[in-house]
Write a structure and sequence with these properties.
The complex is a heterodimer of chains A (219) and B (219). Chain A contains 8 helices and no strands. Chain A is mainly alpha-helical and 219 residues long. The longest helix of chain A has 40 residues. Chain A starts with a helix and ends in a 5-residue tail after the last helix. The chains are: A mainly alpha (219), B mainly alpha (219). At the A-B interface, helix 3, helix 7 and helix 8 of A face helix 2, helix 3, helix 6, helix 7 and helix 8 of B.
């Protein structure tokens, strides 16, 4: 097992291209997960029992099955019914949908944490449903959830290598292709590992800060 | 419709591999969780440092990278693993790191007065841990362990990428042999979900049984 720095220098540009796609997929996936999660959380609180139940079961199903199979499902089954998606789009939808079911739980907890009195006060001020949500409930519910949401986005970042299975050319796929070309696995695989380790150690610091800044619930 | 029974047999074989991996991975994860979790609350700074390094390393790099590292890089270091061994090793060490934090949190959640009572009864550190702290902490850990086991079950799908014939792998085989996409992926998703339901039901049952003897301990 010998480490070759020249080889590292040679493959670096390819890996950096992969890093860009990895980061792009994480950002798009996070935005989608934040929106899907809010949608699921609101639908589960819906007055309509059938909507609330079926969305609940759907979210439960997605959370109980592997992301990889869901990605395959989106990538292979949807084209059969006429929806042809580029790999990156399919990957972002998979990530967003999967993590949306997790962020939905964060939203739910955050919304439940808003004291009852706030709802009653909104009603007393004669605010309608939409105004109650946008002006009273969400502004109070969202800041305490930020650390938990960030936690899931970091988890999503660590799952992006799965996108290589549906031919997205992100970091892991680039590493695999250079490894297969030169038949040297040590450097590419270790670099990928080191990259993820560095980013997630940095994100631990960021999380601490977020918790310090937003985590406290003021009553 | 093609002869579904033959392909169903293939998928069920995959399910057996997935179950086997989940069980073996869980056992390794459980051992690592207790070793590292108790290591984090150790008196000795060296033990704490080793446990922290292990946890941060395995939580920081993604399961996918670890699996590829175990399968492709370790052979160059003279340690050849079969796909099954690499899978169990990566899954167990990865989920063990997450579960170690659960063990630590649960041990710390046991009240101070319990530790003081141990001292008052002249119990040694090990005796106190074994007879007083752990029986109470175990109940706190159990629900989260259930979630970790489900995460492990979902993570097993990744081993299909190092050519281990688990559920996801067999779904791909069926897809490439029949050209049908919906049936293999949907049936595999349902099997994964059923397994996840079985795990959460099992953990809930276990929790009820273990809580039985501890009535009135927790206020």
């Amino acid at each position: 097992m010998d480490w070759d720095w020249n080889f590292v220098r040679e493959i670096m540009p390819t890996l950096i291209q992969g890093v860009k796609i990895t980061i792009l997929a994480t950002i798009l996936g996070s935005v989608l997960a934040a929106i899907v999660g809010l949608g699921i959380a609101l639908a589960r609180r819906s007055e309509n029992r059938i909507v609330a139940r079926s969305v609940g079961w759907f979210a439960e199903f997605i959370r109980g099955t592997p992301l990889l199979v869901q990605l395959y499902f989106i990538f292979y089954v949807l084209p059969d019914i006429g929806i042809l998606l580029p790999p990156l789009v399919a990957g972002v939808i998979g990530l967003g949908l999967h993590y949306g079911t997790y962020t939905a739980e964060v939203y739910r907890a955050g919304i439940d944490n808003v004291p009852r009195g706030q709802w009653e006060a909104a009603k007393a001020c004669n605010l309608n449903g939409r105004h109650t949500w946008t002006h009273i409930i969400l502004p109070q519910a969202i800041p305490p959830m930020i650390p938990a949401l960030a936690n899931y986005f970091i988890a999503m970042f660590k799952e992006t290598p799965l996108l290589s299975a549906i031919t997205v050319l992100e970091l892991m796929n680039q590493a695999k292709s250079v490894a297969n070309t030169y038949y040297r696995y040590i450097e590419p695989m270790t670099l990928v590992g080191a990259f993820f380790l560095v980013i997630s150690l940095c994100s631990v610091v960021l999380l601490r800060w977020l918790e310090h800044r937003y985590g406290r619930i003021e009553r | 419709m093609t002869q579904w029974s033959g392909y169903l047999g293939l998928i069920l074989q995959g399910a057996l591999v997935t179950i086997e991996l989940t069980l073996m991975g869980s056992v390794l994860a459980l051992i690592m969780a207790f070793l590292a979790g108790m290591g984090r609350v150790s008196r000795f700074i060296i033990v704490r440092a080793i446990a922290t390094t292990y946890i941060e390393f395995f939580r920081g790099t993604s399961i996918f990278v670890q699996l590829f590292w175990a399968y492709f890089v370790l052979p160059f270091a003279g340690l050849s693993l079969t796909p099954l061994q690499a899978g169990v090793l990566a899954l167990g060490l990865n989920v063990g790191a997450y579960a170690a934090e659960v063990v630590r949190g649960a041990i710390l959640s046991v009240g101070r007065e319990q530790y003081e009572a141990c001292t008052a009864l002249n119990l040694g550190r090990w005796q106190g841990m074994r007879h007083v702290i752990l029986p109470q902490a175990l109940l706190v850990m159990l629900p989260t362990f259930g979630n970790n086991a489900i995460e492990l079950l979902k993570a097993t799908s990744v081993v299909s990428l190092i050519s281990l014939a688990d559920l996801t792998f067999q779904a791909q085989v069926v897809r490439s042999q029949t050209g049908s996409t919906l049936m293999p992926f949907l049936s595999v998703l349902i099997i994964y979900f059923a397994l996840a339901l079985i795990i959460s039901w099992g953990v809930r049952t276990l929790e009820r049984r273990m809580a039985r003897g501890l009535d009135g301990v927790r206020v």
